[in-house]
Write a structure and sequence with these properties.
This protein has ten helices and three strands. By secondary structure, the chain is mainly alpha-helical. Strands 1-3-2 form a three-stranded antiparallel beta sheet. The chain is globular and about 55 Å long. The chain starts with 19 loop residues before the first helix and ends in a 6-residue tail after the last helix.
Length: 241
């Protein structure tokens, strides 16, 4: 009989479970509500019921409330004490101001790209977004306007992302959400498909020329044209989205 001590295998103590499921529910709820706002299923001024959303998504009130707080920080909804939560609306003045800030950021980003020799990288980054926009607008009208919006968004996000300034990219992403909302509510009436494509192609051609003035002019024209079309449409709806 051996005198060596017997080895007893004891199970390792259990580690506490992290609340990943709850985090995922909040993120999923946030994404669903954001998509509904962007695709006009929740319209400006509409009241958002926490109980109704929770019932539809089969979740508790907690992730819905957390998602709405996040959307409120982004400015997509407005939480009014003792009244409820409402989808934010935009006025013509809001659109004018948003596009002023957008122009400042994008023109700065363009200068950084040209200065830092990142033009080729930018052109590679926008291949996918441009392909999506072309596919979504094969004729004078859009075949898939939401897809076109996604391509347009990614095109301009790539421009700003290449500055390497993460804080600026965050500011621009939040700003761009509101611009996308203002366009989404008018679908393909916001702009002519071929004109929109021509404006993006002009920006690309300007970058290929490495001409700072040409880049600035092409970007300013594109941004100004989109803004003017939205403001014009808003004026026909009482100046408010």
């Amino acid at each position: 009989m051996s005198d060596s001590p017997r080895v007893v295998n004891r199970p390792a103590p259990e580690s506490p479970l992290l609340p990943l499921e709850q985090h995922d529910l909040t993120e999923q709820t946030y994404q669903v509500l954001k998509e509904r706002i962007l695709h006009r299923q929740l319209k400006p001024g509409a009241r958002v019921s926490v109980d109704d959303i929770a019932q539809q998504l089969r979740v508790s009130r907690t992730p819905v409330t957390a998602a709405l707080k996040r959307l409120a920080i982004e400015g997509l909804v407005e939480i009014i004490p003792r009244r409820g939560t409402f989808v934010s609306s935009l006025t013509a003045r809001d659109v004018e101001e948003l596009f002023v800030v957008r122009a400042v950021i994008e023109l700065y980003a363009a200068r950084c790209i040209l200065r830092d020799g990142k033009t080729d990288e930018f052109l590679r980054r926008i291949d996918g977004p441009m392909a999506k926009m072309r596919q979504a607008s094969e004729t004078d009208e859009y075949t898939d306007y939401p897809a076109f919006m996604e391509g347009d968004r990614d095109f301009h996000l790539a421009l700003v992302d290449l500055t390497g300034n993460s804080r600026l990219a965050v500011v621009y992403a939040e700003l761009n959400v509101h611009i996308q909302v203002s366009r989404a509510h008018y679908l393909n009436t916001v702009e002519d498909a071929m004109q929109a494509l021509r404006e993006h192609e002009a920006v690309i051609a300007a970058f290929r020329s490495r001409d700072p003035q040409a880049v600035e002019e092409a970007l300013e024209l594109h941004i100004s044209n989109v803004k003017d079309r939205i403001v014009e449409l808003l004026s026909g709806h009482g100046g408010r989205l």
